[in-house]
Amino acid sequence: MKVEYLHTMVRVKDLDKSIAFYKMLGLIERRRTEHEGGRFTLVFLCPPDQADGRADVELTYNWDGDDGLPSDGRHFGHLAYRVENIYEMCQQLMDAGVTINRPPRDGHMAFVRSPDNISVELLQMGESLPAQEPWASMENTGHW
Ligand SMILES: C[C@@H](O)C(=O)SC[C@H](NC(=O)CC[C@H](N)C(=O)O)C(=O)NCC(=O)O
Ligand code: NI
């Protein structure tokens, strides 16, 4: 199955300062999304010649602070990959004993944890897949 690295997410306390830092490393802001409901902003940074939707870094700015996360710079977020078929990938992982913390109920996004509890986001390449059991009725298992 085709799998492509998508981004690494880190949580930031000051978007402008963080963007200025990554600009010094040659990255540009490719995309920004504001999430009123969740009260956070996502900023995707990538090299200037990369325009295929992948980003080196996804900055997450929580408007109300980082839920008490440590401020030592190690409050890592997740690694993200886009996969050819998110249901088949999640089934393979589940068969290998990996917990699917956030099942792909929407046929688009799932979260799993590595053996070291690193959060890994999986996104469906292209359009979301049609709703399908057992995924459509699976519950989240803890915080992804
Ligand atoms: C767009 C896609 O790449 C995402 O990563 S959105 C995932 C989503 N992010 C948030 O909810 C950000 C705010 C949240 N308070 C946080 O700090 O994570 C999400 O499900 N994040 C959970 C995670 O483990 O990354
Ligand atoms: Ni992400």
What does this molecule look like?
This is Lactoylglutathione lyase. Keywords: Lyase, Metal-binding. InterPro entries: Glyas_Bleomycin-R_OHBP_Dase, Glyas_Fos-R_dOase_dom, Glyoxalase_1_CS, VOC_core. This protein has 144 residues and is α/β, with parallel strands linked by helices. The chain has two domains: 56 residues, 2,3-Dihydroxybiphenyl 1,2-Dioxygenase, domain 1, CATH 3.10.180.10; 46 residues, Signal recognition particle alu RNA binding heterodimer, srp9/1 (2-Layer Sandwich), CATH 3.30.720. The protein contains two helices and seven strands, in the order E-H-E-E-E-E-H-E-E. A seven-stranded mixed beta sheet has the order 2-3-4-1-5-7-6. Strand 2 and strand 3 form a beta hairpin. It is globular, with a radius of gyration of 16 Å. The structure holds the ligand C[C@@H](O)C(=O)SC[C@H](NC(=O)CC[C@H](N)C(=O)O)C(=O)NCC(=O)O and nickel (II) ion. The site of nickel (II) ion (NI) has 6 residues, from strand 1 and strand 5.
Summed up, the domain count is: 2
- Please give the radius of gyration in angstroms: 16 Å
Report the CATH C-level class of the largest domain: Alpha Beta
Bound molecules: the ligand C[C@@H](O)C(=O)SC[C@H](NC(=O)CC[C@H](N)C(=O)O)C(=O)NCC(=O)O, nickel (II) ion
